[in-house]
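Standup notes
- DV: blocked on the single-chain target, sequence here:
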Amino acid sequence: MAKNYLLVALRALRRQPGHAVLNISGLAVGIAAAVVLLLFVDHERSFDSHHEDAGDVYLLAERHVTPEDTYEWAATRTPLLPVVVEEIPEVVAGSRWGWSQKWFAQDETRIEVAIRFAEPGLAETLTLPVLAGDLRAALSEPGRVAITASTAEKLFGDRAPASLLGEGLDIDFGDDTYTVAAILEDPPEATNFEFEALGPYVTYIEERGGERFGENWASVTANALLRLAPATEPSSLAAGLGAIQGAYFNDAEGSDVTVYLNPLTTIRAEWAGNGTLLVLLAVIAGITLLVAVINFTNLATAQALRRAKEVGVRKAIGAGREQLAAQFIGEALLTVGFALVLATILVLSLLPTFNAAFETAIEFEVVRHGPGLLVLGGLLALLAGAYPALVLSGLKPIETLKGRGPRRVTGAGMQRGLVVVQFALAVVLIAGTTTVWQQVQHLRSQDARFDAASVLRMPVLTEPLP
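- DV (later): unblocked, structure below
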C-alpha cells in the first residue's frame, strides 16, 4: 500500500512540474531561512554548555540599587570568593580570574597572548581538557603557565605537548620568565571563558598592588566562578551570601547591594544583552515557517479543481476517505522531503557567508541537527497537508464526476483567510527588515568626527622590537 501511495505521489508531481517546483522551492527557502536563524539562536544559547557541570557553575555578580537606577555588575569584591568557598559548604569549588595581554617569546619567536590568571580551583570548576602536564600545578605557583595547543604551536612548532613541559618563556621582553607546566586543548568558540594561556592568580594580584588589591573589600573588580554541589538550588545560598556581605563589607555610597549567582550558561544572553534578540529571532523563524506552510496549503488546495475527478473515480471504485487522506498526506510528506533536501543544501551554502558576516562559527551537524530537521519536516507535512487532504478526501463522487463538487467544498473562505494571514505576516517581516536595514545604514552614514583610515592601533612595548 505504501509503495502504491509513493508511486501515485511521484506521478502527481510529474504531471504538474511547475506546481511541484513552486511548492518545493517555497518550502525549501522558508525552511532554510528558519533553520539558519534557529542555528544562530542555538549557537548563542549553547555558550559554555560543553562543561561537564555547566548546570552547577555560577558567576558571582552584584546588583546595586540606587534611588536613580539599578546597576548589574558581572564582578564582585576581590576577597569575597575565598570566604564564600570556606564558609558555605554547598560551594565545592571556585576560582577568581583576571585577564591581560602579554608578549611571549621563545628563541626568535615573539607573539602577543591573551592570558587569564586564575586559581587552582578552576580545574574543578570548568572542564578544561589537559593534553600534558597538571593544570592545578600550573595555577598554584608564580612563574608557571599553561598554554593552549595553538599557542604552543606558534611558539614551539609541531613538537609533542609532553616535550614542552618545563620549557621557559620570556615574558614582556625579559621582564619575567614563565615555565610551561601544562598544555591545554583550545577552548571552543562558543565560550565566554576564552584564553590562549592561563597563569596563577597570585601573579595577577602581585602585578596590581599585592595585598592592597587582594584584600580590598571596597572595589568591585574581581571576576569569580563557583561550582555548587549537585542538586543545590542557588537561592539556598542567599542567606549565606547576605551574612558574609554584612560581616565583611557594606556599601558606603548609600546603594542597596545584593550579591547573587548568575548561571554560567546564561551569561552570554544576559550580559551581552542579546536575550531579547534571540527570542525575536526565534519568533521570526516561526513566522517564516508559518508563511511557508500557508503558501504550501494554498497551492495544494488550489489543485482541488484538477484532482476532483481523480478523487471521484477513486471513491466510485471503493476508496475510503481515510485512504485518500493518507495518500494526500503522503504527497505532502514527499514534497516536504524534497524541500528538506534542497533546504539542507541552501543552509550549507549560506552558513559560510553568514558566519563571515556575523563573525560566528555556526556549523550544521547532521548527527546533531538532522533528527530535529526530520521531525520538523514531519510536522510541516502534517500541518501543510492536513487541510488539503481533508478537503480533497471529503469530495462526493457523484458531484465531482458531474463537475459540481469543487465549487462547493474547496473551502474558498478558508483559502482567502490563509492568503490574508500570509500577506499580513509577509508585510510584517518586510517592514521589520526594512526598518532594521535603514537603521544600520543610518549608523554607517553618521560622521564619526575622525578619519578612521588615518587612525592606527599599536601595542605599548617596553622596548623596541629587534
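- Follow-up: The chain has 17 helices and twelve strands.
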